[in-house]
Design brief:
Elements: H1 6-28, H2 45-98
Helix pairs in contact: 1-2
């Protein structure tokens, strides 16, 4: 059974960390794409695999965040419309109570 070379393991971990860091940076800066360091792909098949994986994850999270934002915008709009509808009711009730009329039948 062959043991993995420590150097190879460290290189693979370095590639993964570099890809992950690039994705995190793009997410934190609301970027449109992941910017990997120059020559990253030339590091070999592991680099290509990591780059593709991080891009897929980045796009999936970006789509999810976009959906959440759209849902929140819609909810804010509904709440604003509801608030606008309640304002005339409150004004009407205030007028009725100040004129001495009861709101109860």
């Amino acid at each position: 059974m062959a043991q993995r070379d420590d150097t190879q393991t460290r290189a693979e971990l370095g590639i993964e960390l570099t890809g992950r860091k690039a994705r995190h940076t793009a997410q934190n800066e609301n970027g449109c794409l992941i910017e990997l360091p120059p020559g990253f792909s030339a590091l070999g098949p592991d680099a290509e695999r990591v780059a593709a994986s991080e891009r897929r994850l980045f796009e999936a999270r970006r789509r999810a965040a976009s959906g959440w934002k759209a849902q929140h915008r819609e909810r804010i709009e509904r709440l604003q419309q509801r608030s606008e509808g309640l304002s005339p009711q409150r004004t009407s009730k205030t007028r009725l109570s100040s004129s001495g009329r009861s709101l109860r039948a």
